[in-house]
Design brief:
The chain has about 475 residues and is mainly α. It is built from 19 helices and 2 strands. The protein has a two-stranded antiparallel ribbon with strand order 1-2. Strand 1 and strand 2 form a beta hairpin.
Length: about 475
């Protein structure tokens, strides 16, 4: 009888660090700062918010590092929540992760990629509508851009289907391209760019409005989403060499690199233009580049964003299936997703099903609505995972911990409190969306009871 194929440990420290960076840096850094300036009006506060967001992300990375060392296998948060609180908590995370958070995020990235491809090839954009109809009284349109989005998902899923090496190679290449394009913008921006913004320290603390703590909180919320994705390497722990050492180090190196990159980019924005000119501007990267280098620079930024989105899509498609595989391996998800290809040594069926559902969301046009309803719950799962550090130290004090969270208990406590505050703020400011999101997550309860019942039956049959 053939032995069951298993995941192969082929990712080194460079690959793991690259995955952390690649899962975070997408289009956000080119678009978020304008909205942040709308909340906080001085250059100093803009940079402070980015630093605070980076520090909060780092508290999460340090907390997740201990959990990764304890459980160095595929699945990430699903494993940590399951071990800390029981099967139900891990399942509800995985349920929301597959149906909405991950596949909805993939669909959003893919459609965003198509949108920026349309900048260079208008006939391939989301504005190139090929069908307009009404379905059950609701308008529905289908564009060429949606098919481009599905095509990008198909190509990257195929790359990952043929093994972790091919997936990580594409991911590494696009991380290098992103860092290189950002480096060009930063270096040329400071050396030859025409600057009319913060050109000396006297304007660093100038503000065009009054300071409000609420505004600082809203700005911080936007920044935290731009840092999202840093936990990707935890999901792929089963394919990392010496994961108990490599993952903690890659989390710290990767998040540190992202914070530095974000601060450098923002320094160029603030040098390019006065803050009031960039306030609430969606495409702030293009606006700043145009001020620095002239109108032709818009193409440079559009190219950088296209590369960033495609690279982030590549990273996201890579790490997501490892969570579904871990769920299936625990008997709490579709059994087919436990399959590891005997030759390519990756969860090929999980990769395929992720691609199929994300593509359906692309074509349906519902991905953004679903994503907005449920994405707020991510912070609740983050808070629960941060608290798992405390829970597991109490419940499993003798469990091996190759790495212990630096700054314990303050560091994980800060991570938990910040995420709970963001969650409560979401409930207060968006009660309708939050309620619908909670209903979507709670819809997983009957599914959990179904899979748990199957698991118990299988266990009883094995005992007999």
């Amino acid at each position: 009888m053939n032995e069951k194929a298993e995941l192969k440990q082929e990712m080194g420290l460079l690959d793991a660090t690259s995955l952390v960076i690649g899962s975070v840096i997408g289009s956000g850094i080119f678009m978020t700062t304008g909205f942040i300036i709308g909340f906080v009006k001085s250059p100093g506060l803009v940079l402070l918010v980015w630093v605070l967001g980076g520090l909060i992300t780092l508290t999460g990375a340090l907390s997740f590092a201990e959990l990764a060392g304890m459980f160095p296998k595929a699945g990430g948060q699903f494993i940590y929540l399951k071990e800390a609180y029981g099967d139900w908590s891990g399942f509800l995370f995985g349920w929301a992760f597959f149906w909405v958070i991950m596949c909805g995020g993939i669909a959003a990235l893919a459609v965003g990629f198509a949108e920026y491809m349309g900048y260079f090839f208008p006939s391939l954009s989301n504005q190139a509508v090929i069908l307009k109809i009404e379905v059950a009284g609701l308008p529905y349109s289908l564009s060429v851009g949606q098919f481009v989005a599905v095509g990008s998902i198909f190509v990257l899923s195929a790359v990952n289907y043929f093994g972790i090496k091919s997936g990580i190679l594409v991911q590494n290449v696009f991380v290098f391209m992103r860092i290189a394009s950002i480096a060009v913008i930063v270096i040329l921006g400071w050396i030859i760019g025409r600057k009319s913004g913060m050109v000396n320290w006297s304007s660093f603390f100038e503000t065009s409005g009054t300071f409000e703590w609420k505004s600082l909180g809203l700005a911080l919320f936007a920044v935290l989403w731009t840092y999202d994705g840093w936990y990707a390497v935890n999901c792929t722990a089963g394919e990392v060499k010496k994961p108990e050492k490599t993952i903690p180090l890659s989390l710290m190196l990767g998040t540190g690199a992202v914070v530095l990159i974000y601060l450098l980019v923002n320094s160029v924005y603030l040098a390019a233009l006065p803050v009031e000119t960039m306030s609430d501007v969606a495409r702030v990267g293009e606006l700043a580049a145009t001020a620095l280098f002239g109108q032709q620079a818009a193409s440079l930024i559009a190219g950088a964003i296209t590369i960033a989105i495609f690279g982030c899509l590549a990273a996201t498609i890579l790490y997501g299936p490892r969570v579904y595989y871990a769920m299936a391996d625990a008997g709490l998800f579709f059994r087919s997703m436990i399959f590891i290809h005997p030759r390519y040594r990756v969860p090929t069926r999980a990769i395929l099903w992720q691609g199929v559902w994300a593509s359906i969301l692309c074509l349906s046009g519902t991905y953004q609505t679903l994503y907005e309803y449920v994405v707020f719950a991510l912070v609740l799962f983050f808070a629960a995972t941060g608290a798992a550090v405390f829970v597991l130290r109490f419940r499993k004090p003798d469990h091996s911990r190759p790495y212990k969270t630096w700054g314990y208990p303050v560091v994980p406590l800060v991570f938990v409190i910040i995420n709970l505050m963001v969650f409560l703020n979401s409930l207060y400011s968006q009660p309708r969306e939050s309620f619908i999101g909670l209903l979507i997550i709670l819809a997983g309860v009957p599914a959990f009871l179904y899979w748990q019942n199957k698991l118990h039956k299988t266990h009883r049959n094995n005992v007999k």
